[in-house]
Structures are given as structure tokens and as C-alpha cells.
Amino acid sequence: MPGKSQRAGWNEDEDAFQPLPTYMELAMAAAVAHEVPPASPRPGLPGLSIIEKLVAVGIVCLAFYGMALIGCGLFLKAEAKRTGFITQRMMSAELQQADFDIRFPAHVIN
């Protein structure tokens, strides 16, 4: 078999020479390869002005401040309730002329 190539699947179309690319084609291919992808839309509040964004940030800050005040109020209520229980136990112990120690519960006699 004269003229048979060593690689499998060889045909005469692959043997034909292709024209080399021109400088213009090479430059366009390089430009396309280095193009920057289109910028994605900015996250956040894109349609609002600076003043509107400041107002929105102010509202969020006030909401957090309100939650902090509510938390402080609930803490103070719990402290007052606990202090009330301790004060009540102290008063009852004083009326009974007994020693009062907040670490141990009072002995109740039925």
C-alpha cells in the first residue's frame, strides 16, 4: 500500500494546506480574547439618589436603636421583678426576726 499515512482515519482533505490567517484576523482574535466581560449591574439600591440612600440608612439605624431600647426595657423589667422577689423575702424574714441569706431559699413552715 504505497503512500498510506501512519495515522488512522487519514484522508486527502486533511492533507490540503489551509491559508494562514492575516495580521488583521490575528489582531481581531487577540482583541476578542482580551475583552472585558460586560459589567454586571451594581447590587444594592441602584435607582436611588444619595439623599434617598441616606434616608434609608437612617431608618435602618433607628430600627436597630428601637430594638436595643426594647431589649433594655425588658431587661429592666426582669431586674425589677427579681429585685421585688428578693425584697419581699427580706421583708418577710425581717418580720419573722430570722436571718436572711439570698443564696438559700427561705424555709416555709406550713
Description:
The chain has 110 residues and is mainly alpha-helical. It is 55% helix and 0% strand. The chain is built from 3 helices and no strands. The chain has helices at 12-15, 23-33, 50-95. The radius of gyration is 43 Å and the shape is rod-shaped. The model has no long low-confidence stretch (mean pLDDT 77).
Descriptive keywords:
110 residues, 55% helix, mainly alpha
Q: SSE string, helix = H, strand = E?
A: HHH
Instruction: Please tell me the overall pLDDT.
Output: 77
Structural class: mainly alpha
The low-confidence runs, each spanning 5 or more residues with pLDDT under 50, are none
Biggest pleated-sheet summary = none
Assign an overall shape: rod-shaped
Helix percent reads 55-70%
Specify the number of helices: 3
How many β-strands, per DSSP?
0
State which percent range the strand residues make up. under 5%
